Amino acid sequence: MQRRFLIYLCIQASVPTFSLLGPMLIILIKKSAVGQEGGNLIFFFMAFHGLTSPLSVVFCNDAYRSYALAPLKLKCANTIQNPIATVSELSVRRSSAR
């Protein structure tokens, strides 16, 4: 339990680290002025933090994950209309069809 918590905590801490460290490294490595393409890439990395941070919280926390995936499970359960019949149910169906 403690090990899993530590792994999830490291995942959640790495999201802002990489999404904000990436643009800083681009700026530091490229010593000249950053052009339009570089600026767009930097902005993409920083904007991607807004998507990945909540997703990491939802998928790393069991309570959040079960709450977020519950509507999907209900929708999938409602679409499946073909129940599995047992052998005795099949024999009853065959005998009543004759």
Primary descriptors:
98 residues, mainly alpha, 4 helices, 0% strand
How would you sum up this structure in a few lines?
This is 7TM GPCR serpentine receptor class x (Srx) domain-containing protein. By secondary structure, this protein is mostly helical.
Description:
This is 7TM GPCR serpentine receptor class x (Srx) domain-containing protein. The chain crosses the membrane at residues 6-29, 41-59. Pfam families: 7TM_GPCR_Srh. By secondary structure, this protein is mostly helical. It has a domain at 2-69. The protein contains 4 helices and no strands. It has helices at 2-29, 36-60, 62-79, 87-97. Helix 1 (2-29) runs antiparallel to helix 2.
Outline the fold blueprint.
Elements (H helix, E strand, L loop, with lengths): L1 H28 L6 H25 L1 H18 L7 H11 L1
Shape: elongated
Percent range for β-strand residues: under 5%
Order of helices and strands: HHHH
**Low-confidence spans: pLDDT under 50, at least 5 residues?**
none
